[in-house]
Design a protein that fits this description.
mainly beta, 11 strands, globular
Length: 126
């Protein structure tokens, strides 16, 4: 049984930082792509950043480029999303997910991901 558990969310002021973690179990972690997605109230879920295991290819949404970084620790089956210089528009529930990562051009497409965590709330507000 695949289980993904996100942590690290919370309330932060604009300009602040948070580090999200996604711990995976029940899956051969280094065989898959891991993605971070977010969903703000009234908006569709969107891909934020994804990383592929085979070659560590990464994707970042334009809105987070230069501010967010993604990394993985295969030994601990954990993926991290470092979020710096946060802005109110980053407020959302953040989810991690596991997918095949077979198609690089679809690395951060939602329907390429099969297993999802329960999400962690990130709120950026003064």
């Amino acid at each position: 049984q695949v289980q993904l558990v996100e942590s690290g969310g919370g309330l932060v002021q604009p300009g602040g930082s948070l580090r999200l973690s996604c711990a995976a179990s029940g899956v051969t972690f280094d065989h898959y792509a891991i993605g971070w997605f977010r969903q703000a109230p009234g908006k569709e879920r969107e891909g934020v950043s994804c990383i592929r295991s085979t070659d560590n290819s990464t994707y970042f949404a334009d809105s987070v480029k230069g501010r967010f970084t993604i990394s993985r620790d295969n030994a601990k089956s954990t993926v991290f999303l470092q979020m710096n210089n946060l802005i109110p528009e980053d407020t959302a529930v953040y989810y991690c997910a596991v997918g095949s990562g077979l198609l690089l051009f679809r690395l951060c497409e939602i329907d390429e991901y099969e297993y999802w965590g329960q999400g962690t709330q990130v709120t950026v507000s003064s």
